[in-house]
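Journal club prep — side note

Before the paper discussion, L.F. wants everyone to see what a predicted structure for a comparable chain looks like in token form. Sequence:
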Amino acid sequence: MRTHARLAALAVTCAVAAAAAHAEITIGVTLGTTGPGSSLGIPYKNAFQLVPKTLGGEPVRYIILDDESKPDNAAKNARKFVTEDKVDAIMGSNGVPSAVAMTQVAAESATPMVSLTPVPPLAPERNRWTFVVPQPTQLMMSAVAQHMKARGVKTVGFIGFSDTWGDLVYNAVNALSASNGYKLVTNERFGRADPSVTGQVLKITAAAPDAVVVGGSGSPAATPQIALRERGYKGPIYHNHGTVNRPFIQTGKKSAEGAIAPTGALIVAEELPESFPTRAVSLDFVKRYEAAFGAGSRNAFAGYSWDGVALLDAAAKVALKKAKPGTPAFRAALRDALENVKDVIGTHGVYNMSPANHNGLDERARVLVQVVNGEWRLLK
């Protein structure tokens, strides 16, 4: 009997050990796959069909919910992830206001958050748990500012979303103005779902700026692009990294021609030199994505999802040595590991994070592109 008891106990011990060795990691993802942000949210979601089925060598499960591009829904989904699903990390969303709403949940629940959109400066406790995948707005808009300076632009009109994303782009362009020799002469705003910006564009054209910067994203960013061209504006129109996708061109049609924006390498990977640090990773992702979703379907936003998973994979390898998924200790270890990832090569750039920098990208993460004959092409 004692022998049988010992064998039974050993079997239980082995089963527990096996379960621990193959513990599933759970990630909650909320995205605006409907609503005004859907032209971004859909490709963000598409990428999850392509990502590896493991993180740090262990099985991973992604719970993906639609937040309808609404900040309240994004926060609600995030709260469900941490209270009901007991996730190890949260990811999302594709709109700045939604991502900001999620950071509060991440901080309150001590759950690492991988933000798939830039966020404004956060309170220390929120920042502690939030890691940002896309390039910082000021890093990207500095490429625009430098290009305007080289072209002799002295006055700039601004029109952007009437929300946090519009503020982020405006603040970056404004902060860069003195060092690049231009002055902002307008600060017009519009809603993401607004069908017309005629009034705002009339004010811009009356100011006659040398160039215009649009602080929008996705297909809604085409609304001012179209209106400016229809009103006869001939100057250069610059956008940001939230605009570089096919729906912007499809919506803008001929009016989109000539639009200039900063973006990551994957959009024009074939046009970059062999030595470009992310070229190989970008080309591999583009091949996978276009095989699944069609030729020409590449976009920056799907790349952000891919890069976010790459960061979690690198961090999970470290965190798994310290704790088991599904526990507060693992979430803390994952946070600590994310804060110290080094040389993670993504589709957009090379990530080197630190306690002082929860993004870790540098100028290698940006190129300027322009719409030429209905395609985003490297601006040379």
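L.F.'s comment for the group: Residues 2-135+298-362 form a domain with the Rossmann fold fold (CATH 3.40.50.2300). Keep this in mind when we get to the figures.
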